[in-house]
Amino acid sequence: MKTSGEVVSAKSPSANGLLALLCTVQFVLFLDASIVNVALPVIQRELHFTPANLQWIITGYALTFGSLLLLGGRAGDLFGRRRLLVAGLVLFAVASLTCGLAQDSVMLIVSRIVQGIGSAMISPAALSLLTGSNAEGPARNRALGFWQAAAAGGGSMGAVFGGLLTQYVDWRAIFLINIPVVAVMLAAIPRTVQHETPTTSVHLDYLGASTITLSIASLIFGLSYGEQQGFSQPVTIGALACFVVFGAVYPIVEGRSTAPMLPLLLFRDRTRRAGLGTMFIMGGIAIANIYFVSLYLQRVLHFQPVLTGVCFLPSALVAGLTASQVTRRVVKRFGVKFTLLSGLASMTIGQWWLCHLAVHGTYWLNVLPGLVFTSLSIGLVFPAAAIGVTSGVPLGEQGIAAGLLNTSQMVGSAVGVAVLATVASAVSKSSHHSLTPGYRVSYAVATGLAALTAVFLAVQLRGRKRPLDAVPISVGPAPTVEVDGNYRAGDTPFGTA
Fold first, then answer.
1. Number of domains within the chain
2. Distance CA 185, CA 275 (A)
3. Domain range spanning residue 400?
4. Domain presence at residue 280
């Protein structure tokens, strides 16, 4: 990628190699986020986790991943995305090694937190490299479809690989397998990712970065601690209060900055706001779906880990094929709004189906149909939201836009698991510690959230019928886009800026 704004042809070998590398990176990150779910019962037994601390294997990763994504995205814009990608991959590999060698619960949780830091460096750098090397329109829509297919595939296949490795190798292998994979990716970077000239005229807004990072981290920590210890605890209240305070201070800090970390103009466009809001809710529902289905299959239906993993194969296939082959065509013909609403309708159906989990249920009747509708939704919504959020953003701001998109998804994941796990736990306790009623109610809540998000989206995008309707923000130069002669310098998908 070149900082001058040139876009690599989508048909060139270098573009295809770059797309393959970046999709592999995305696949590994989401694989790692979900691969742990199937192994949780085994890890709990071997490392003597308390039930309250077990959730921190997931939340600890999400805490640093979600809170540092904006900083990682901005750092990539200023200091070079290739440089940040390499550093993040190295840190991620080291943390994976310490996860695999963990001797107690503290060591594993700390290692997962460090893994999250590496992921927060990798993810926005990779996404901004992808959007910066593909022009808005068909080329970028295709690339984002494959990108989100990799995410959906990684999230779903995590359960498959997690089950196979946990049952036939060892739970430690779910972390140690990252090391050779990362080594291959690091070896491929010099041949696929071009050198950049870091931006020197703009400096990182350290005060703004600190404020927004502390706000997001306080939210994730407060919700997670509240889910484990109770929302009336002083620590929970204090953390959530810090979230509110830092969040309120942030716009004031950014208003006084000459180079704000997160340009508030990014939120001016309704399509971008709708895409971010949808990703927030969908991120929470999607990760909680994998979490609860894994627990239901193992603890209620008594499936072995490997069989639990295999049960997620249809999800991976449906989500991957929909994102890579279907969504860009639907967006081209009917627009982002229609695609998002269709996906949310499918999510509502899928979560409603899972509301009917039974103590003596079956996978084929009680689980699989809900998984298929949910996976179809993920394949439609994630690429369409990414298209809406990144459209109209100048090349020099693609990093922060990528960080914003990923932040909405990852924070939504942390919030979704914390809230829905709290609901499930409370219901199970009131039902004489029966697990299934708690799972059913959590899916009922997710059903309502999906339906309400569809209403929000319909209102937010009322009257918009164009395939894309992102307003270009005037922060830096507009990129030159030349793919098959579709657009010119300064053009947007709907005319000259």
1. 1
2. 30
3. 13-196+261-463
4. yes
CB 189 within 8 A of CB 82: yes
Within a domain: residue 473? no
Q: Regarding predicted confidence, which is higher, 161 or 186?
A: 186
Instruction: Find the CATH number of the domain harbouring 435.
Output: 1.20.1250.20
457 in Cβ contact with 385 (< 8 Å): no
Q: What is the DSSP string of 433-481?
A: T-HHHHHHHHHHHHHHHHHHHHHHHHHHTTT--SS--PPPP-SSPPPP-
Q: One-letter amino acid identity for 348? A: T
Evaluate if residue 202 carries a pLDDT over 70: no
Q: What is the pLDDT of residues 221-242, one digit of tens each?
A: 888 788 777 888 899 999 999 9
Is residue 212 in some structural domain?
no
CA distance 149 to 24: 11
On whether the CB atoms of residues 39 and 160 are closer than 8 A, the answer is no
In degrees, rounded to 5, the angle at the alpha carbon of residue 243 between the alpha carbons of residues 242 and 248 is 95
Q: Is residue 387 part of a domain?
A: yes
CA distance 345 to 249: 37
Least confident of 6-15, 85-94, 293-302, 410-419: 6-15
Region 468-490: mean pLDDT is 36
- Nearest-angstrom CA–CA distance, 488 and 449: 41
Backbone φ and ψ for 496, nearest 5 degrees, come out as: -75, 135
Phi first, then psi, for residue 492 (nearest 5°) are -120, 175
pLDDT of res. 290:
82
Is residue 279 within 8 A of residue 144, CB to CB? The reply is no
Cα–Cα distance for residue pair 386/127, rounded to 1 Å: 10
Q: Vertex 89, ends 12 and 400: CA angle to 5°?
A: 70
Q: What angle (nearest 5°) sits at the alpha carbon of residue 106, between those of residues 105 and 108? A: 65
The pLDDT of residue 87 is 94
Mean pLDDT of the chain: 82
Tell me the C-alpha distance between 270 and 399, whole Å: 20
**For position 198, what pLDDT does the model report?**
61
For the cut 60, the answer to whether the pLDDT of residue 468 exceeds it is: no
- Residue 482 · residue 140 · CB < 8 Å: no
Q: State the helix-helix crossing angle for 105-132 and 398-430, rounded to 10 degrees.
A: 140
Please check whether residue 83 is in contact with residue 72, taking contact to mean a CB–CB distance below 8 angstroms. Answer: no
- Measured between alpha carbons, how far is residue 317 from residues 293, 372, 374 in Å? 17, 9, 12
- State residue 465's pLDDT score: 52
pLDDT value of position 5 = 40
Mean per-residue pLDDT for 255-281?
Answer: 82
